[in-house]
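We treat protein structure as text, and this decision shapes the records that our systems exchange. The tokens are whole numbers drawn from a learned vocabulary of local backbone shapes. One such record is reproduced below, unchanged from the form in which we store it:
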Amino acid sequence: MIVEIGHFALALALGVAVVQSLVPLWGVARHDRALASVGSAAAVTCFLLVALAFAALVTSYVRSDFSVENVVANSHSTQPLIYKLTSVWGNHEGSMLLWVLILTLFGALVALSRRSLPLRLRAGTLAAQGMVTVAFLAFTLLTSNPFRRLVPAPPEGQDLNPILQDLGLAIHPPLLYVGYVGFSITYAFAVAALIDGRIDAVWARAVRPWTLLAWVFLTLGIAMGSYWAYYELGWGGWWFWDPVENASLMPWLAGTALIHSTVVMEKRDALKVWTILLAILTFSLSLLGTFIVRSGVLTSVHSFATDPARGLFILMILVFFVGGSLALFAWRAPLLRQGGLFAPVSREGALVVNNVFIATACATVFIGTLYPLVLEMVTGDKISVGPPFFNATFIPVLVPLLLVLPLGQSLAWKRGDLLGAAQRSLAAFGLGILVALATIAMTWGGPVLAPLGIGLGVFLVAGAAFDLGERISSRASGWPAIWSRAKGLPRSAWGTALAHAGVGLSVIGIAAVAWSTEAIGVLKPGERLTSGRYTVVLESVMPRTGPNFRAEVARFQVFSGNRELKPVEAAKRVYLARNMPTTEAGIRTDGLSQAYVALGEPQDDGGIAVRLYDKPLILLIWIGAIVMSLGGALSLTDRRFRLATPRRVKAQPVAAPQPAE
């Protein structure tokens, strides 16, 4: 009965989403405030119905209801409860339901944001978002129904893919989906603005928090996915330029550009057309990622579906929303009034340069990801575009952007002093150079470019700190005055500095990867293996049984020089239901570095193959991502995002026609 309730709630949500997508637009067209307000009630109702359906599916997994085909294919009665829960979104059908749940949650949040949005803008936004909801609910019900029954019900399930039975999978997909789906709201805002013919600072203030929220979660989702692949797959790497990894990176890059573009628009009423286009493209890239993962065009540990019918349906969604919004943009954007002017040397000019570099970097990833797929579909030829291509095209675009970043944040709005900004950045630049030279001296004969990367990261961190210090201490004498200015500084300024410092920390961690070392050996108990600063000694190999797997666990002593660290365990598991092996790496954290141990196959002579990595400063990659996210979250608490819409905007009747400007 619970399954039927969930299925019915999902079907009912589709009907409510149709109402949400049509009635508010009708109300705006007929100058009827009551009809225009229907979208809010419909959005909240749609979320509650989808939440009910999601709860029904979760209940089916927790109870191990093997009359549900989705539960049979992805669960097992012996699975721990946590993995029964993560099994809900560890498959195509369940993950689509989670996608729709987050989609409707964002719609409900917009509907409840009455004080921060004019009625006309809210109605148009909810209508556009409702259309996206209709498409994905229809896709779920018609091609990916998670409530399909099996008659007769089998006695046991097939278990979740062992690679996905990890706590990282309890965190990674929900974070990533909030990021992906969050950009649907910025897309809906853009479509509403194009239909209405009005885009101004009020629009920028309204859209920026949603962009920040989506960006924060997408940053955390990508970082969590990277760390999960690092420790779970046993390969010792943190990024492989896999097409699905790139599919998450592209909307992140576009979203980063969008955040900076909305700042210019809010401050100077400029870059209106570009900001609208970025809002459309960011969600379009999220849809593209959905198509890549679920269409069957590639085989990856990340991909879910291989059904051509599903791929065709998603392709139709992609064409409709991307093509339709771009056509609307081509029609309406030329009619929008251009914004304020600013000098090329200014904070606005620096943000434009920022956008150009980020857009170019995104384009290189787009071409490198899509070209092999398109070539294979058109000609049948298979080519591999991997790290060498992306390292040769992406990094040369990214480095100039990072060099300009501290300089740009020191410039004034509207018209800046380039020489003064350079002088203010000189201390940070000098510190970066000193650190780079010191790194070269300490690692003489090692990688050539990596020390420059370390210096660049230090330059970014120091530039953010020095700029913040300049703003706090300027025209302040004594600690009381400095403390007062620090408290009075907008939270967005603190958030910006924190986010830029996070970028610097990640750059340092990425550059330090160049000094990673690897050693491979076959060990018996008592034998040792050395890689870089770390040595491991195999103590013992013992069998271990889990709730749904058996494992061979190797225990190692770990030494850093003459210093003994805590022991570490690495394992090879075999999950019984699928008879599928997995590798569980053993990781010992040493400050910001890690000793990484992975097991290979047992040998005929009784030894076991072992790989040992020395990973210097690697934790900075993910610490930097967390610091970036904290910066974005801090900016979200800025006072101006909590203010209501200005009275002059609220006073405008929904009935008033909006001329194209």
